[in-house]
Amino acid sequence: xxxxxxxxxxxxxxxxxxxxxxxxxxxxxxxxxxxxxxxxxxxxxxxxxxxxxxxxxxxxxxxxxxxxxxxxxxxxxxxxxxxxxxxxxxxxxxxxxxxxxxxxxxxxxxxxxxxxxxxxxxxxxxxxxxxxxxxxxxxxxxxxxxxxxxxxxxxxxxxxxxxxxxxxxxxxxxxxxxxxxxxxxxxxxxxxxxxxxxxxxxxxxxxxxxxxxxxxxxxxxxxxxxxxxxxxxxxxxxxxxxxxxxxxxxxxxxxxxxxxxxxxxxxxxxxxxxxxxxxxxxxxxxxxxxxxxxxxx
Amino acid sequence: xxxxxxxxxxxxxxxxxxxxxxxxxxxxxxxxxxxxxxxxxxxxxxxxxxxxxxxxxxxxxxxxxxxxxxxxxxxxxxxxxxxxxxxxxxxxxxxxxxxxxxxxxxxxxxxxxxxxxxxxxxxxxxxxxxxxxxxxxxxxxxxxxxxxxxxxxxxxxxxxxxxxxxxxxxxxxxxxxxxxxxxxxxxxxxxxxxxxxxxxxxxxxxxxxxxxxxxxxxxxxxxxxxxxxxxxxxxxxxxxxxxxxxxxxxxxxxxxxxxxxxxxxxxxxxxxxxxxxxxxxxxxxxxxxxxxxxxxxxxxxxxxxxxxxxxxxxxxxxxxxxxxxxxxxxxxxxxxxxxxxxxxxxxxxxxxxxxxxxxxxxxxxxxxxxxxxxxxxxxxxxxxxxxxxxxxxxxxxxxxxxxxxxxxxxxxxxxxxxxxxxxxxxxxxx
Lengths: 297, 430
What we know:
Largest sheet of chain A: 2 strands, antiparallel
Largest sheet of chain B: 6 strands, mixed
Number of domains of chain A: 1
Oligomer: heterodimer
Strand content of chain A: under 5%
CATH class of chain A: Mainly Alpha
Number of helices of chain B: 19
Radius of gyration of chain A: 24 Å
Helix content of chain A: over 70%
Shape of chain A: globular
Structural class of chain A: mainly alpha
């Protein structure tokens, strides 16, 4: 009798899962081997006739200096995202989960960037960075720091930094919410015990809060890592990878090759490389996490 | 058991319903014609909307849906739709390389059925960018477009400046403007094609129209790494080093008007842009129009190029028909009877465009600005189509990338010419 109920449950579960599974397979899993397949062809993405060229695309990829520049930029983005977004997320998460009455208001305020679309954020920041009327340069000029004012998005030296700052602005609220949830799940007794033992705020933060949210930190790192490796939105809106490829990322480069230059085969090669890189790095991070902390689940 | 059956039934129902909704999305009820264009900020967008209404009034049962899409995203959106086999019935195109790519893929319908009619109506050169293998693939609709230096008359008057005819005079004007704390030239470089104008003009003024033509046709020892193109890049970098352009121009966006704003506000005095600019001006800032005039790109000392040469095209924008359209005949009807009919032409002229139709001059007599454009076109020795539209897409993009690097001082003139030449040689050898 019990097994019958179990079978029913399995059926119901399958029935509910199958539509999602169908679309997941169709749009996320099947395209991966397809991209590898397309990477062996010279194809413009329009005509059915595809010319098999073996590994020529891959060969070209490894010699493509613009592509390697985009890989380096991607790693800069990964490192900066982890170094800026996660500490800021923890800090804001701690602040907004404090008992202060105004904490809720701040939580709401800080969360606003997360609710905006990337295109809207990009356009807002294009005007903030605008060299002649933009908020930043106007401010710098008015306080007498005009030698610091520059064409933020137009200068190869500052463009990547400027875009990364915007990306951080967009994603910090996301980590803030994750960490504030993790922090509020820490039993109050621990903090109270530490308080009785005479620990101050900073000590409790480092000795209790941080160790107890390590798993969340690792998970956040993985999210930041994979998110940054495939990052596209704001870069495309704000700079399109320019000027002179200084903000080129793998995903933007892939997109431009496939859809602007009509080189679907080569675009697929870039996509396949991104896939290998992301999977490899994610597994590595997870492995290190498990080894060091016995991360479960 | 009963409960389970009901649950299952519900699920099946919901899924079926879902698929039905999906299917309905794909079907078109009645006869719908969709058209995509890029007229988000010009008066032309309003003209075509009105004509769509007329078309629907006189063709009951047909719905003509016009979608205006922003210029640069449009190119990708169209490519994606074409690749997926679901393009609109009618689409905007610049002609040249990218259109040929679609033609070769069998996505564009030749307009043989209405060709005779079209040839009667438009000037012959209007079709040069959209004729492949003797077939016309698109209908011109935007007008004669040339790229000119637009300038603020009031600023020039105030500073006692004359319209420059030679490069030396031009640099003098720039210096004077700079000394008066006015940015000499407004430029938004993020979009790259805005910078390509300078490169094309300087190459033309240095080496004449044959410099590019021969280099692309690989005629004799002509190439993209000869002195002409190196010199063009050098002159650009000279302008950049002298701060003739706004600070950080390579990050500024033309589509959102970041260059025009400088001109409107009087922070900058000149602006190299196509003749669609007065049309945009009429829409964005009509009071400014009286302060704006234009001059042809100055000649260069010892340059071989004829200073009447223009960068532009006799038909800048075109509308083409896709082979996947279900309403080809009605769509061709719209192209034939509603685009550039007398009412359209009059409205175009009022909004600042000279349509590439025969007898255009008779419409523009009372508009000095347009009369001047029509006159410059009539006198032009040669009209050079934009490189990025003329070349195959991949090389067009490469050219624009290199141009942006030249403007950003990220590449030496010699290096830029070498990279361009290498890209062309590589492309042709494939």
